[in-house]
Amino acid sequence: MEVKIKSMKHEDFKDNEYIDKLVEELNASGTNVVVGKLDQLINWGISNSLWPFCFGTSCCAIEFMCLGAARYDMARFGFEVARNSPRQADYIMCQGTITYRMAPALKRLYEQMAEPKYVIACGACTVSGGPFKNSYCVVKGVDEIIPVDVYLPGCPPRPEAMFYALMQLQRKIKVQKFFGGVNRKEKRKEFFESKQVAPTVEQAQDSTIENLNNQE
Amino acid sequence: MADFQEQIGNLCPEAQFDASGEFLLVTVPDEKWHDLATALKNEMHFDYLTALVGVDWKEELGVMYYLTNTETQDMIHVKVATTDREQPRLHSVSDLWAVANYQEREVFDFYGIEFINHPDMRRFFLRNDWVGYPLRKDYDESPEKNPIRLDDEQNEDDTYRLVEDENGNVTRVDGKVFEDEEYVINVGPQHPSTHGVMRYRASIEGELVKKVDVVSGYIHRGIEKMCESLTYPQTLLYTERLDYMSAHINRHCLCLCIEKAMGLEVPRRAEIIRMTMDELMRLSSHLLSYGCLTMDQGATTAFFYGFRERELIYDIFDKTCGARMSMSYMTIGGVVADVHPDFIKDVRNCCDVVTEKLKEYHKLFSGNVIAVNRMKGVGILGKEDAINYAVTGPSGRASGCHCDVRKCHPYSLYNEVDFDEVILENGDSMDRYMVRMKEMEECIKILRQCCDMLEAEGIEGEYIAKVPKLIKLPAGHWYQQVEGSRGAFGVYLESDGDPKPFQKPYRLHFQSPCFNLVGVVDLTCKDNLIADLITITASIDYVIPDIDR
User: Fold this and answer.
1) Domain boundaries B2-160, corresponding CATH code
2) pLDDT tens figures, B283-332
3) What are the domain boundaries of chain A?
4) Topology of the domain comprising B223-548
5) Which stretches within B94-194 are classed as H helix?
6) Opening angle at CA A115, ends A109 and A121, nearest 5
7) Most buried of A120, A171, A176, B197 (most Cβ within 10 A)?
8) Interface pTM (ipTM) of the complex?
9) Residues facing residue B511 across a β-bridge
10) Partner-chain residue, chosen from B152, B189, B325, that has the shortest CB–CB distance to A62
11) How many contacts does A have with B, using Cβ atoms within 8 A?
């Protein structure tokens, strides 16, 4: 199945094998007609109105502001409503270095976001620590603390590159499944367990719900 | 210089002098330091503490104080050190120069030097449960000691001071930042109007701010420590990631400092190109601060206007340097490549466009009744306070200080161009805004002259001096300052004269202007409305990565 988004042609993307593989994996055991259509409808809605959460710590944030300003105008693709509160945002674009002191705050902001939520690691610092990799207090990539959907290298990335990353996210959203099949929450649980981080508020709630269900 | 030596010798007979460097170096024992400092400030009028640099000289830990006389612009520096590594203590000068308050906290954070009589001895950048002092040469960097902690810091309110009695006995007195009955509001670290990850804790009474506690370090990356393990050309890249809105200027400063240490002559053409880039950067920075200040007050259109003109400048950078931000264009000995053939044409065009648009900006915002009501007479910073807190740049000049480094200590070719230093008197938010608007006109004036100078040099020419492949500096220390977009940016460079092929700086300190700017937030916001905290901080206009480094 070809993953189509409005703003860019399928063949213009450089990594189509990857998304095709993802689609194949997700549809390996077939899809129910009704549920599949419902998924498509939801994904169409989400992918065309992605609201970013302004989380800029340094240089990348300035480029992100350029993205919102008149020349690049991200409003064309439905990304325009930049929110300052995590509760109202769909995805968090980490712009800039995350230090040890900032790490707990970032984790909490991620937890405060409503489902479904996505993360873009924007800039070399958030991908791997970038130029500050050897520092004593820089987190070597945000994927040490939160799960990342799209990695965007560059120091800082150009606005065009930011568009590319946002479109990659749109494509990923286009193929996701809400009903049956793959469960994002399950994957996230695995992620946090593998990172051996103390259980989060969200996980604690999940486990209490599970306990309640078991008791019933 | 000999004159100062005699005067200081009379004030403090124990002082030792070294006049071989660029400024007179005075070495004083710690016991005599506070008395000498008082005399230096009150009698010899050294009222501006330009830089305060902590250094670990292995056998001793200490601090370098760079002092400036704001009337004559003379500079001296004083070295105070202690041999005690277990419990190093020096006397605080924060009662004389208010700027030393935060600076000493920084030194405490990095080197563990406690300052006697300092009012609030807390860490500044790192978490309060951090183990060790990272800039000491014997710091243990193993990640087990300081893992990523995902829990909140405990006991944030706890602080202490060291009090000395008449007999010289020092006792520790514990205290609290805020009393229990105070109502404290938290702003940040993730807040759209703090322009980055800055956090304030403001104690309020009704709607009036009583005290603001600045909690910094959310973007502290330890750049100074990393520089100690890199060669000189490698350290250049970090300067652009300090204050990214004056990337070229910061890089220029470090280049100048290393060139000064090497005794390298830079081709004239390279200096002109550098100066042009600096002014373009300043213009771009002021346009951004216009955009952000207006947006913080709800004027979104003005923000778009500011960014529209910035794209012109970005295009110029893009053509010549190959990047929009973090250009990595200047290098030791000159610039990495000659300018694009369209450069002069583009710069002239940019000047014309911005001159025209500035009128539009004023029409849109400057006279607006909301802007006037929210900025006029709000957040006043007097001239004496500005000097005391070492506030420089547009914010300092709005308070009436003559502090433009381009005029006071001319570097590059600034003594060849004709421009005015914009100085206003009131020191409120409105004046800080107006200084920037007027400075943009001065920038354009300089840029036009730069274009003429560049044209006179011809289309092509030598843009980089002959630089040895391996850069080795003699033992010594140097200080260089330039006028950044937000104030005097300084670089302290110390070399131990290591004969190994890849020599690394022994100590590299960046004296960032924004660090001083954030020091006046408490002073200016006091007794103002909590809502004005946003406009005041926006008009002071700091960049957080520059504070935190």
Assistant:
1) 3.30.460.80
2) 999 998 888 888 888 888 888 888 888 898 999 999 888 888 888 888 88
3) 12-182, 185-216
4) Cytochrome-c3 Hydrogenase; chain B (1.10.645)
5) 100-111
6) 55
7) B197
8) 0.83
9) B490
10) B325
11) 122
